[in-house]
Amino acid sequence: NDFENIDIIALVNAEDDRQVVKDLILKDTSNSCFSNKDIEGNIIPIEDMANIYLEYTKMYGVRLDSIYIGLLSLTNENEVSIFIVPDFQNMGLGKKVLLKFLKIIHREFNLEEFVGEVTPDNIRCIKTLSNIGFSEVPNESRFVPINGNDTLVKKYKLNYRNVTNK
Q: Which of 76, 81, 75 shows the shortest CA–CA distance to 101?
């Protein structure tokens, strides 16, 4: 499958889109893409998580044919993130989807610089970012709360002019 039928759909804070976000968050079986705890370690209800993501980031659904298989987001700091449901991971989709997303974001918002933060153990994501042209920013690692634990993340940056396979 060459996944030519992939669409990236802007999501807004409406009931249908909140449901899409909730359904996809629940498919994060690794519990590493979406934190369900706040900074004090209190559990955040899934409804609140969906509202927070939709309110504070630009969210996009990844749709294959008519099925949502992932989420993309862009923060005010130009940080991009990607989540593909487990059934569709390890198929080369991440790179294809992220390239398409960067092209859309570059065109829509005229952005040149992008940031990604990844835990060092997420080898697949690091490989995908590197293959697109992201490079690690030395000395900019930090700890962020993920599911109540302080977790190391490394920062990667990309200038859109350096994107491979545009």
A: 81
pLDDT reported for residue 5: 86
Tokens standing for residue 86:
């487990």
* Full-model pTM: 0.86
Backbone angles phi, psi at 159, to 5 degrees: -100, 130
Beta carbons of 24 and 68 less than 8 angstroms apart: yes
Q: Which token pair is 47?
A: 């409804």
Q: Strands, E, within 12-112: which ranges?
A: 58-64, 67-74, 80-84
Dump the DSSP string for 139-156.
T--EEEEETTEEEEEEEE
Structure confidence by residue, pLDDT tens digits, 105-115: 999 999 999 99
Mean pLDDT across the chain, nearest whole number? 87
In this structure, are residues 115 and 102 in contact, taking their beta carbons and an 8 Å threshold?
Answer: no
Q: Are 98 and 91 in contact (CB under 8 A)?
A: no
List Cβ neighbours of 93 (8 Å cut-off, separation of 6 or more).
Answer: 3, 6, 69, 70, 84
Report the pLDDT value the prediction gives residue 121, as an integer from 0 to 100: 87
Report the C-alpha gap between 158 and 1 in whole angstroms. Answer: 28
Q: Based on C-alpha coordinates, what's the Rg of the chain?
A: 15
